[in-house]
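Ops channel
N.P.: pipeline sanity check, posting one input/output pair.
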């Protein structure tokens, strides 16, 4: 069984202490195989690889990024500046997944910006790897570059 939750990818995430408690209780009973992270990230927030890696390791189980998107609703600047910020976050989180040694999957949430669930809140969310016309954005290339 994988326990899956959101806001549990950083040491100060609202659900991180709750996730740890649930994981410890389930581990004691032999009822858990991994931890899922629903990483619906705000592009304005500062996420550090080191903190995300430490948080992943703190669970003591394999980790699965079951959902990741990086919303740009609150990010100012030109489209290129906003997309560059998003690429940095996507790339850093992919690197954290790989470098942690704990992460078994990295699933992007949504196929294109106009189809993203965040577009219901703001047409400026632009949270996925692809624009409204399904053309790859800088974030796509940041993740792809890491794979080379």
């Amino acid at each position: 069984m994988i326990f899956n939750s959101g806001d549990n990818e950083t040491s100060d995430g609202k659900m991180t202490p709750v996730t740890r408690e649930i994981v410890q209780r389930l581990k004691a009973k032999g009822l858990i195989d991994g931890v899922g992270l629903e990483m619906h990230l705000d592009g304005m927030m500062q996420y550090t690889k080191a903190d995300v890696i430490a948080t992943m390791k703190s669970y003591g189980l394999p980790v699965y990024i079951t959902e990741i998107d990086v919303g740009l609703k609150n990010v100012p600047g030109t489209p290129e500046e906003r997309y560059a910020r998003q690429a940095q976050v996507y790339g850093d989180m992919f690197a954290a997944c790989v470098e942690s040694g704990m992460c078994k999957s990295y699933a992007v949430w949504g196929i294109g910006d106009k189809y993203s669930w965040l577009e219901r809140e703001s047409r400026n969310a632009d949270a996925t790897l692809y624009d409204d016309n399904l053309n790859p954005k800088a974030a796509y290339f940041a993740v792809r570059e890491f794979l080379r």
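N.P.: looks fine end to end. The chain is about 35% helix and 20% strand.
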